[in-house]
Fold:
Amino acid sequence: NRELSILNRHKSQFLATMSHELRTPLTSIIAFAELLQQQLPEDDQTNLQNVEEIRTNGENLLVLINDLLDLAQIEAGRYQLRPETMDLVDVIDSVERVIAPLAMQKNIDFSTEFLREVPLVKADPEKIRRAVLNLAGNAIKFTPEGGQVKIAVDFDQEAQQILVKVADTGIGINKEDLAFIFERFRQVDSSNVRRYRGSGLGLALTKELMEMHGGWVGVTSEPGKGS
Structure:
């Protein structure tokens, strides 16, 4: 057990130090794909579509790598929060700019709402944005065309807690699966052939980020009715 623990720590340290080496070439690939898109003539639809595939898949891979490396850095004790006084309105606006176009592509009714005035809070805005973005991105992914996704922010005066609720009308989750959806590399459908692609890291990272801030994350869901 001690040897396994040491090997696991070495693995985490290796991945943590590899972050720059993995991210840099992939970022370059995405940048050059965008440059090619701008240079290709509009009537060259075949090559435009090919370059778009390169860019899209590069961005998807970068998201997966970022989640994996962030979890590795947390394990290795190298992941640090950079707290500052932040307004959650700005964070939700930033998430909305990313999620709204994705919702539009699937004809999903997406909205955000602040149920009451939320105080400023001391937190790492990028990490909070990442956590909410993971939840909202999952909601879009698992909600069929014509569904609804909503981000609602509330403030519990008595508990002094800011509550961010991401609700969808998606496929839902079975009761027996709720216990492990925040575990690393776990997905409700773990078969090799899955309709919904993903690494199973997004929710695990969200949980880690919330707990690093002294917060928590939970889920309620019903199959066929949403989460």
